[in-house]
Here is the input.
Amino acid sequence: MHKAGFVNIVGNPNVGKSTLMNQLVGERISIATFKAQTTRHRIMGIVNTDDMQIVFSDTPGVLKPNYKLQESMLAFSESALADADVLLYVTDVVENPEKNMDFLEKVQKMSIPVILLINKIDILAPNPSSKSEENSKSGGSSQTQLATIVEKWHSLLPKAEILPISAKNKFGVDMLLKRIKELLPESPAYFSKDQLTDKPARFFVSEIIREKILLYYDKEIPYSVEVRVERFKEGEKSIHINAVIYVERDSQKGIIIGHQGVALKKVSTESRKALEKFFGKSVYLETFVKVDKDWRSSDRELDAFGYNLE
Here is the structure.
């Protein structure tokens, strides 16, 4: 008997979906930062054993779109509701359970197994040793706070299984994986057993560079940036890469490059180190910055950057 299925991860921005994905797959498939809207694509990570294949999908955080890029991101998230065998709906201990109710109502109507994951339980207040004023202000013990959160979510998704986790600390992840295995349908494998993801190498190059930009720049800069790999030449021991960082305005180009090119050099250096770790080879990386006005609102440009469902 062989089991296989699609286990799709959805939820609002910044609740830890990508961190969870990486823990479940055992590889760093999705970039994960402290900033919302880090994930823009639907990214598959595949776990294989002799008798099982789990196809995980990380998706962008659910949001109300303000421009066409965000419309594409929401479409990726909604597509994950259509083909899931098991749905993982990720929330955390601080977000409002009624945020983005339109999407949540779609989850409520699903007939497949839904596992609601309450992430970041490690940040709840510790158990009080005494009835101190500080513990009183925090809302009591972590168990009391968690029970209140679970009760609220149970009222919103009464058919869902609820599992508190800490993806960052890997608490509850093994238990979740065991439950997923139980819920998977009998099926042959959908992908080759030696395949880890559905994305090509160039995709991960652009994502790693974009991750460094998310980490090193503030305000609107990370959200106005896209990366395209124009050259990827892999040899036995090294990889030569040319990548273009696109921004929307000349002022943003100046910020990305920085005074005497210092900022761009830092991003390039840190990206190269991460790429060498990812590919296990020496990497020669050249980065350029170009202006592509309003690329986030252009159907043609979004299609070229891979933001479509075809």
Notes: The two ends are 32 Å apart (CA to CA). The first strand starts at residue 3 and ends at 11.
